[in-house]
Amino acid sequence: MMPYSFERLRNTIASLRAQTIREQIEVILAHGPDGASEVDATQFREFHSFHRVQLHKHFHLEEAFAAGFAVATAPVVTYVEDHVTINAEWAEALVEAHRGPWVLVAPAMENGNDLESRTARALFLIAFVEWYGHDRQCQISSGPGHNTTYKRAALEPYRERLSEVYGSERNLCYLLEANGGKMLIEPCAVTRHVNISKVRAGLAHAYYGGKVFAAHRASAMCRLEKLGRTLLAPAIPILQLSKIIRILLARRKFAEIGLISVLPSLIVNLALHAIGEVAGYWGDIDSATKIYQRFEMDRLSSVTEKDRALLVPQKSAASNSA
Asked: Sign (positive/negative) of CA torsion 61, 62, 65, 68?
């Protein structure tokens, strides 16, 4: 997805070109009308195929995924973010895992930020702790948002409303699971994710992320269930924090992630996410979605200078700061 410049995609494209099975990868690039002339098609010569999908100027992430899905022919599909890097065996490991009876396969998630960023580590734990630190394949109940691979056959029943259901992947996973879908994590596929590292942006992301998630769930709830979840909201941060601690201890990652140092940031962001959930049960989703989309589609504006250097080629980083 290219909502801004092609230059921002170069590191991610380089990760894809380094894949052991790059000749089997179908790449689809979704962009707005202003970006058409920027695309360097020579960057995609080594792949199985390359397609471009032009959308309107202010397209949303879900629209881009649905548009890409509509033209894709591969049996396994995924969205590759512009703020991740992946190991060279990522695609091969995921494809091999998909030969099993899984509707989705998740990669192992790693923190891709500068290690000094407490905000980034806290947000990484909130978003991705379930897929962090795995050392073997095992069945899971959901995949990491925007980083999960799906059998296209599993998404076909939702083709006409894919833009809607992809808006909250956790809820999409609930749908797949309710229909008998089984899910797997493949630790040989590793995604290093650069998270928001500016404090204020992180707080806003936690709140609006909670609001969007809850609003999608609320569409299928009666008023009584909404009320019950609202009353239970104060317990959510405690339950989530205990879950994070449990997972880190079980996988021996407590010291590696530096939990003690990020605890204050973690608690505040968990509380804001819970407040956002309550607002999502009762409020309008449209404005929250627009704000949340900006954080997801423009990661450069919400990271520190050290993390910015990880996302763009060195030349580009220098020119942007000049």
From this structure: negative
What is the arithmetic mean of pLDDT over 238-260? 94
Whether 9 has a pLDDT exceeding 60, the answer reads yes
DSSP 100-129: SS-SEEEEEEEE-S-TT-HHHHHHHHHHHG
256: helix, strand or coil: helix
Query: Cα dist. 104→59, 68, 75, 131, 238 in Å?
Result: 26, 17, 12, 13, 29
pTM across the whole model:
0.89
Query: Would you list the DSSP string of 271-322?
Result: HHHHHHHHHHHHS-HHHHHHHHHHHHH-GGGGS-HHHHHHHS-HHHHHHHH-
Q: Residue 212's Cα: distance from chain center in Å?
A: 14
Q: What is the pLDDT of residues 262-300, one digit of tens each?
A: 999 999 999 999 999 999 988 777 777 888 888 888 999
Mean pLDDT within 60-75? 95
β-strands 76-78, 138-140: how paired? unpaired
Spatial neighbors of 10 by CB under 8 A, at least 6 apart, are 43, 312, 313, 316
